[in-house]
Amino acid sequence: MKLYGLIGYPLSHSFSKGFFAEKFKKEGILDCAYENFPLADIAEFPKLLEQQPTLCGLNVTIPYKEAVLPWVDELSPAAEQIGAVNCIHFHDGKRTGFNTDVTGFKRSLQPLLKPHHTHALILGTGGAAKAVMFVLEALSIPFTVVSRKAQPGVVTYESLDKEVIAAHTIIINTSPLGMYPQTDTAPALPYNAITKHHLLYDLIYNPEKTLFLQQGEAQGAAIKNGHEMLVLQAEASWEIWNEKQ
């Protein structure tokens, strides 16, 4: 039996276990199992490896995408540049870290892009924002990063006027604003400046339509939530785990 799993904390509402259970059942995969491994501290990771010697692969979620780096032997180019890992492949005694958030986001975003989608606003500066930056750079889409606090290379929400919104026809929310249960919150944007030429993408998938997306849709913008990205990053992990078996 090949064992895969998810580390993070807490994992009570994790997507991955249900996704892989359904995948294994639907595809008749009988020799694989996927389990949640909640770790209250990343220092528990070596103990988990001792307890589960048959592990073939792990997904990594909040808050350990960066903290797990000392325990991997190699990094993919994307994971190295971003400085975050959400997928680990165990093979030939080595642990290799990947970032399949990049794959999921890129595969989800590309079909939505139109010729007028030339510049992007990235809302937030966390690990997810770094994955989004990596993809936009790969697609040669210039971007501006927005945060509540002023810092080098980053603008504040207060500086976002109608001209800035008009010039950035892709707006990507990587912050937790609007996530369940705080569904009545949204990034502070001049939403009345959004038009039918805009694409609003929210990495949040619960609720299905955040206040950020609702307000963009009301202005005629194209909208997309993070569910497909989540599915695609999980499928990318599965591809990685099986490509060298």
From TrEMBL:
InterPro entries: Aminoacid_DH-like_N_sf (IPR046346), NAD(P)-bd_dom_sf (IPR036291), Shikimate_DH-bd_N (IPR013708), Shikimate_DH_fam (IPR022893). Pathway: Metabolic intermediate biosynthesis; chorismate biosynthesis; chorismate from D-erythrose 4-phosphate and phosphoenolpyruvate: step 4/7. The keyword Repeat does not apply. Keywords: Amino-acid biosynthesis, Aromatic amino acid biosynthesis, Oxidoreductase. One of its GO terms (biological process) is aromatic amino acid family biosynthetic process. It holds the Pfam family Shikimate_dh_N. The keyword Glycosyltransferase does not apply. It comes from the Bacteria. One of its GO terms (molecular function) is NADP binding. Residues 6-88 form the Shikimate dehydrogenase substrate binding N-terminal domain. One of its GO terms (cellular component) is cytosol. Gene3D superfamilies: Leucine Dehydrogenase, chain A, domain 1, NAD(P)-binding Rossmann-like Domain. This is Shikimate dehydrogenase. It comes from Chitinophaga agrisoli.
